[in-house]
Design brief:
Layout lengths: L2 E2 L5 E3 L4 E7 L4 E8 L11 E2 L5 E2 L2 E5 L3 E6 L9 E8 L13 E5 L5 E6 L8 E10 L2 E11 L3 H7 L25 E3 L10 E9 L1 E2 L5 E2 L3 E9 L2 E6 L11 E3 L13 E6 L9 E8 L9 E9 L5 E6 L8 E10 L2 E11 L4 H8 L4
Parallel strand pairs: 1-11
Antiparallel strand pairs: 2-13, 3-8, 3-10, 4-5, 4-9, 6-7, 7-8, 9-12, 10-11, 12-13, 14-26, 15-21, 15-23, 16-17, 18-19, 18-22, 20-21, 22-25, 23-24, 25-26
Pfam families: TerD (PF02342)
Protein name: TerD family protein
């Protein structure tokens, strides 16, 4: 049975491997910072987060709840602290708006060691959950639970993580590109070479009505494939693969049930016919529920090979609308570019979205 910890409590660890996971009602990311005796990182590899899922002795886990696995014996000798950080994926949300997160620490074989509830949070979207401290040849766990309202980027740079200047192709911390509508990013340099595969992810949670009755909100992700201003192909819930096979849909989720991404679409850019000039990604609400009624609704674009997050957005910004044009990938000479659109529309089916998409080509 797990020992119950409280904020500020310290305990000596008797295991060499452990996993820290977090249970929460909202979508959450868990990160780790490897720090020296001065509380600073040694370099960019010492930040383990959604765009860099592993580092020396540490890796992110993808079980029922997000977490991080830590092999204490594998940590470099000049790492004196491992700091575990939580952040809400919805950057407009606050921990104080929801039930508090529950942190669980398990040893080898999933053996429960500790558990504690991070309560007393307010408008923060980021929390420093705990530290693991090296004490001679041993390690201890120190419960923190401190909210950090300046944001995740400010937290990691405050610990010395180097930051790439805008437009740099490599080096330094680069989180998801928070593109505002109309902003664009070239994709040719993402992996020191051509981006070949992109993945759109859509996620949302079931809505509870009166008396805890579940309201089945059915959101649909679609990729509309254009040659000029004409739709020539698509991948959507009624056609899971485009005719060329370049775009593939994971399958229709009708109520948002299940953890993580509910629908995904992968597009192999190299396999798109030469006549294709753009792929536009849209989200529509099949039963006409507006986005303001949907919980934890997000979209995300990833590098489909490495899994690196390129850009993401929050569907709640759509308000009283039933659809959104979220992003497009289009040819620009010999390279591909991505544009964030994020414009709400009224559409319950991707066919209804087509006339409203054309203006963004």
């Amino acid at each position: 049975m797990a020992a119950q910890l409280t904020k500020g409590q310290i305990d000596h660890l008797t295991v060499g491997d452990l996993t820290v996971s977090v249970q929460h009602s909202e979508a959450i990311d868990v990160s780790a910072l490897l720090l020296n005796s001065a509380g600073r990182v040694r370099g960019e590899r010492d930040l383990i987060f959604f765009n860099q899922s592993a580092g020396p002795g540490v890796r992110l886990t993808a079980g029922q709840w997000p977490g991080v696995a830590i092999e204490l014996r594998s940590l470099p000798r000049d790492v004196d602290h491992v700091r575990v950080v939580l952040n809400l994926r919805d950057q407009q949300a606050h921990f104080g708006d929801f039930a508090p997160p529950i942190v669980r620490i398990e040893g080898p074989g999933g053996n429960p060691l500790y558990e504690y509830v991070i309560d007393g949070l307010g408008r923060e979207g980021v929390v420093v959950a705990l530290d693991l401290d090296r004490i001679g040849a041993a390690w201890q766990v120190r419960v923190l639970g401190d909210g950090y309202d300046a944001g995740f980027d400010a937290l990691v740079t405050g610990h010395g993580v180097p930051v790439s200047a805008p437009g740099q192709d490599a080096g330094g911390y680069r989180g998801p590109a928070e593109l505002r509508p109309g902003q664009e990013v070239s994709l040719h340099h993402v992996r020191n070479g051509e981006l070949t595969l992109v993945k759109m992810a859509l996620g949302w949670d079931p809505v509870r009505g009166r008396g805890s009755r579940k309201v089945e909100v059915d959101l649909d992700a679609s990729a509309l494939i254009f040659a000029g201003n004409r739709v020539v192909d698509a991948a959507a819930f009624l056609q899971l693969a485009s005719r060329s096979g370049a775009a593939r849909h994971s399958g229709d989720n009708v109520d948002g049930s299940g953890a993580g991404d509910d629908e995904t679409i992968t597009v192999d850019l190299a396999r798109l016919p030469q006549q294709v000039t753009a792929v536009v990604f849209v989200v529509t609400s099949y039963k006409g529920h507006t986005f303001e009624r949907v919980r934890e609704a997000f979209w995300r674009m990833d590098d489909g090979v490495t899994g690196m997050q390129l850009v993401h957005g929050n569907l709640r910004a759509g308000g009283a609308h039933t659809g959104m044009v979220v992003a497009k990938v289009y040819r620009d000479g010999g390279t591909w570019r991505m544009a964030s659109i994020g414009v709400p529309i009224q559409a319950t089916h991707p066919v209804e979205a087509v006339p409203q998409v054309i203006r963004y080509l």
